[in-house]
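Protocol step 4 of 5: obtain the predicted structure for the target chain.
Materials: sequence only (see below). No template structures provided, no constraints applied. The aim of this step is simply to have a reference model before the mutagenesis design in step 5. Sequence pasted as it appears in the construct record:
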Amino acid sequence: MYLHLGGDVAVKTDDIIGIFDMDNTTVSAKTRSFLRKAQKNGEISDVTDDLPKSFIVTEVSGKNQVYISSLAARTLLKRARSENII
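Step 4 output (structure tokens):
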């Protein structure tokens, strides 16, 4: 199954490590450090030009990819649950 993250981006649900709320998680210095390292390594993809509300961490073939989405983490989780993905 696939989960639509916004824009023209959908990811395989088996590749998703986590879906995180941007406001709640970026308070932590560790999360900010993780996102800075991901940016430096070219692992961040913005799926929208709107205000970011969540980020989704995936792993494909041992490589991390972080998607920044304007969709709320709660919305993404509801989509996944309605499709019986998680």
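Step 4 remarks: The chain has a mean pLDDT of 92. The chain has three helices and six strands.
Proceed to step 5.
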